[in-house]
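ok, trying the design again with the full structure, not the truncated one.
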């Protein structure tokens, strides 16, 4: 049996996550990020194989393509 407190904690965790989308294709979910995360991540999209730079700072998320897989 799930208590009300456990249910509320789970809902808060889901609400704080943001989905990061690929700027090159229609992949809407490269990965999930917590709102408190800060930094620069480079990741390859598994759908279009583009290398994407994700800059996260102060609840602002910026994505840009920096390379492609040939």
């Amino acid at each position: 049996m799930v208590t009300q407190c456990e249910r509320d904690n789970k809902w808060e965790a889901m609400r704080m996550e943001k989905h990061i989308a690929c700027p090159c294709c229609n992949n809407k979910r490269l990965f999930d990020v917590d709102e408190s995360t800060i930094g620069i991540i480079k990741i390859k999209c598994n759908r279009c194989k583009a290398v994407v730079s994700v800059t996260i700072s102060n609840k602002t998320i910026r994505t840009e393509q920096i390379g492609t897989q040939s």
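Keeping the full-length input from now on. The CA atoms of residues 24 and 54 lie 13 Å apart.
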